[in-house]
Amino acid sequence: MKIRLENVVKTFENFRAVKDVSLDIESGELVALLGPSGSGKTTILRMVAGLEYADGGHIHFGDQDATDIPVRDRGVGFVFQHYALFPHMTVANNIAFGMKVSKVKRDRAAIEARVTDLLRLVRLEGLGDRFPAQISGGQRQRVALARALAVDPKVLLLDEPFGALDANVRRDLRRWLREIHSELGITTLFVTHDQEEALDLADRVVILKDGQIVQQGTPQEVCRDPQSAFVMKFLGDANVIAAEVRDGRAHVGDISVEAPGVVDGKAELYARPADLDWSAEGPGIAATISRVLDRPDGRRVLAVTAAGEQLEFNVEPERVVTAGEGGFVTLRRAKVFAV
Amino acid sequence: MSTLPTRKKPPRVGDNPIFRRTLIGIVLVLVAFVIVAPLIIIGVEAFSKGWVVYRDTIIHPDTLHAIGLTVLAALIAVPVNTAFGIAAAWAITKFDFWGKRFLLVVIEIPFSVSPIVAGVAYLFVYGLQGLFGPLLDAYDIKILFAVPGIIIASMFVTAPFVARELIPLMQAQGRDLEEAATSLGASGFRTFLSVTLPNVKWALLYGVILCNARVMGEFGAVSVVSGNIRGQTNTLPLHIELLYHDYQAAGAFASASILATIAVFTIIAKVLLERQGAGRVRKTANPAEKIA
Amino acid sequence: MRRRNVLPGLPLSLGVTLFYVGLIVVLPLVALVFKAASLGPADYWQIVSSPRAVASYRVTVLSALGATIFNLFFGLSLAWVITRYRFPGRRIVDAVVDLPFALPTAVAGIALTALFANNGWFGSVLESWGIKVAYTPLGIMIAMCFTSLPFIVRTVQPVLEDLDPALEEAAQSLGGSDWTIFRKVILPLLTPALLAGVSLSFARCLGEFGAIIFIAGNQPMSTEITALLIFIRLEEYDYQAAAAIASVLLLTAFFMLGITNWLQARALRYTVKG
Fold first, then answer.
1. Which of A285, B83, B284, B291 is the most buried (most CB within 10 A)?
2. Contact status, residue C56 vs residue C228, Cβ threshold 8 Å
3. Mean of pLDDT over chain A
């Protein structure tokens, strides 16, 4: 099912949570809504579900205008951040709930068979008789997913699906959700504030800030070509270096990088720690190493430039660098944004 | 861009307008009939014979004596129960000991026991045919059918009030603050006054006010142990009964209006204290559950 | 691991607590039980099973049952309306719910009697419909309703307030109708609180005295509640009979406490970690 948001607006009290958002999600696509807290991502998800109504704009499911369809008739599967499992029902009854209350009557055997299938799908065979309080967080997460899938939703919506889990469990579940998605091919939209999660899991990442979409694209597109300083910073660690743009190039000291489309004048140069390197001779940005942090996959160097800017970059594990050493920071690549 | 004010919030369960209005309507009518009407009729009946009768009833020596006795009972029973409530809450929430759950159940017993049963039980402790009766008689100490009996019976029915408000709150607040204060060298009493009390003061006051309302209004237990001697062992509620059965309805209602006024002020105080957060600690369905 | 407790005051606070509870609560109840037990089984049984006593149990229990069932519906509706809806006067309704607790029972008793007497505001109307309330078991029930209403409201209300909205939303997203969600999700989650409220309310009804004696006709065998029968036995100086019947009420109260705890534990089974 294809989903289309058209100029959607949502205001709470006096706070405009979502400002004029338009978004297309193709059938079978797995899309991440990524943004810091307060960016409106959960509100958008809840509007798609029908748990909030948009104050303006339209939401289409396929050819149908779903804007005013109440949640119970919208045919979405929603996985809540804290799962919202019914604590007084067993795992099996939680999963069966949607089928039992459905207007489409199913006989008991059909429901039981479907529950068994779903338990197998989410790898919880044999736990059907447990209560939610008796299983782990990761297992609850999977029950919540099975419950949402049981009603054959047109769209699967997940609100911070792994937010409440340990890092290890989170990584496993991420891979597993990807597998389930490939298997079922259901249009899926999920919300997260964790860039790694969005980039690992989604076909397409939609980055939000203050209720607006600032950039969207495949993980490759947003990573390789961030369109704004915000996206650059939000997606990962970035060094910020003051620069001067002249004739399409940004100059820092005696080095310069391309700055296509940036107007002349003051600008900022953004570089990932992996985009910088260290050299004893120039050209480069003169700096002094203040600390060296050893990590399993390399060495992280903290340096201070002559202008007093703090820079962080990685060097190979075998490279000999020591605190107090002077030298030059060189640039492999960088993005330039006007101030 | 269209802004539709009708699309405010998706309906929750029970938000169907017809259902909602009907239910609110039924509830309001029932509240008016069952709860508010009794309060209004007290005022109406109290002044049914005019202001003069009302005033005469209130300033009648028997009424004044009953008021005095009621206040005396409250002045003794409330502080004693407050001290008990604080001690019990301190012991139960700051320490672990064997039988704690049982102690909690025992403290709450007076809530489940009929006041009449309580009154009768006291007869068998302090009455002539009771445990201490003969001893007390020998020393000519009168507890039953006298003021001390009234006060003790009031203490029984209100024993859990303060403890019940403090225990869940102090339980929720844990022991860290007190342990920190003690480790800094504060004495136990000092720790309680400067660390524990400021955090529970509203809940404490809340318990005290509810306790006071119940002491002043207690009828069943007091009527068993008081002996109902007019002008001597009549509290205000007993005085109301006496007047009522004496076919002085207006007088009974006039006296009742004093207690009703106290009840209204109790509720106002309760609402104000709840705004300060008192009475808000969620009691689990089973209070003993919390204190595991 | 049990950490060593550094806080002072256990001997004093626990000592005061045990002494007070022992003297004020336990001692009298034990004395009552001993007094009743001193009768011997045959005499005891004869007193507690006398027709007048049995009639008093019947009217007390049946009225308490009726009042509690009424309060179950009314209390739940009241708690629902206060927590779920916003309307003018909501805070006032919330506040007056406590009136039955704050108003002394004797005051409530004469007020209800005045309202429901056959010349009262409600009594005269009901009389014209052929319904007599004052001096009948119906009056007893109304007095019980009044005094025990807040129990159910105040035990259900906090649970209803704290109910996770996501549970309801989840049920809605799965296609449940309002009634289904209420029945299958909300009501089961309220059950432990409802049970607690019902049992508190029922216990209060069984023991209620002040509010009832004015409105009940106090006719032996028909409108005489057990608490009143105890009182009458005392006035007749029949202390043993009073003790025996009082012990029945006391044991019933304890039995109710036990039943309630058991029912609640059952209703909350699902929260136990496996």
1. A285
2. yes
3. 92
Rg of the Cα atoms in chain A:
25
- C179 at A interface, C-beta within 8 A: no
Q: pLDDT tens for residues A255-265?
A: 889 888 888 89
Residue linked to tokens 């089961």: C188
Would you call B140 helix, strand, or coil by DSSP? coil
Residue A123 Ramachandran class (φ > 0 left, ψ -120 to 50 alpha, else beta): left
Interface contact flag, C271 A84, Cβ < 8 Å: no
Q: Which domains, ranges and CATH numbers included, belong to chain C?
A: 48-269 (1.10.3720.10)
DSSP-assigned beta bridge partners for residue A16: A11
In chain B, domain spans: 12-46, 51-290
Whether residues C74 and B224 touch (CB distance < 8 A) is answered with no
Beta-bridge mates of residue A78 = A157
If asked whether residues A241 and A227 sit together in one domain, one would say no
Whole domain around residue A298: which residue ranges?
237-338
* Residue B283 clears pLDDT 60, i.e. is over it: no
Beta-strand relationship, A187-192 and A155-159: parallel
The shortest C-alpha distance from A100 to chain B (Å) reads 18
Any A CB within 8 A of C170 CB: yes
For the segment A39-63, what is each residue's pLDDT rounded down to a tens digit?
999 999 999 999 999 999 999 999 9
Q: CB A56 to CB B2 under 8 A?
A: yes
**What would be the CATH architecture of the domain defined by B51-290?**
Orthogonal Bundle (1.10)
Provide the pLDDT for residue B7: 52
Question: Per-residue pLDDT averaged across B146-175, rounded?
Answer: 92
**Between the CA of residue B78 and those of A15, B117, B210, C29, what are the distances in Å?**
50, 21, 10, 22
Model confidence pLDDT, tens digit, residues A200-211:
999 999 999 999
Given a contact as 3+ CB pairs under 8 Å, which chains touch C?
A, B
Residue linked to tokens 């009833």 = B57
Helix, strand, or coil (residue B7): coil
Query: Does B12 touch chain A if contact means CB atoms closer than 8 Å?
Result: no
Which residues of chain C neighbour B28 with C-beta distances below 8 Å? 89, 93
- pLDDT tens digit sequence for C214-234: 999 889 999 999 999 999 998
Percentage with pLDDT > 70 across chain C? 98
Predicted model pTM: 0.90
**Is A188 found in the same domain as A93?**
yes
In total, how many domains does chain A have? 2
Beta carbons of C90 and B271 less than 8 angstroms apart: no
Tens digit of each residue's pLDDT (9 = 90 or more) over A139-186 = 999 999 999 999 999 999 999 988 878 888 888 888 889 999 999 999
